[in-house]
Amino acid sequence: MMGIKPSTKDVDFIVPHESEHKYLIKILKDLGYQQKSGAGWNRKGDLFIFDLFAGKRIHTTELLESPLKPENHKLFKEFSNIYIGILNYYDLIASKLFRGTSVDFEDCLMLVKTQRDQIDIERIQGHYIELASYDISQDRLVENLESFIELLKEENLYG
Prior knowledge:
The protein has helices at residues 18-30, 89-99, 102-114, 121-132, 138-154; strands spanning 10-15, 33-35, 40-43, 49-54, 57-58, 61-62, 73-78, 83-87. The strands form three sheets. It has a four-stranded mixed beta sheet, covered by helices on one side. The chain contains five helices and eight strands.
């Protein structure tokens, strides 16, 4: 959606209002979609899965602020009843680094490489540390950030 990565196996959506999230789940079930994982949905036979998260949570990360605030997202596409926005770079990177998989690290690295002039590494660090401070696994999460910063240094993108 951002024109950075050619393909993905899934797309993550945050539905900020709980009532809209419940309504969307009901509609999906009515249309024959099945829950494939905690938040993942697809139709029988489809390989593509999309994840639906409620509130301001994406995967295991609860964002500090609503993704609906203008500075927390960028418009991708708007339809009559649906607004699709893309998380700001700092929430996007933090949510991926919280998971800490090699694919997530690669995605974050690719994002920084392609959007370097729009991303402040110091801001990533501050934002990430603040998010991690609310998590029970804070020490492990900070290690993920430290590993990512080392990766950025190896790639001459920081320091």
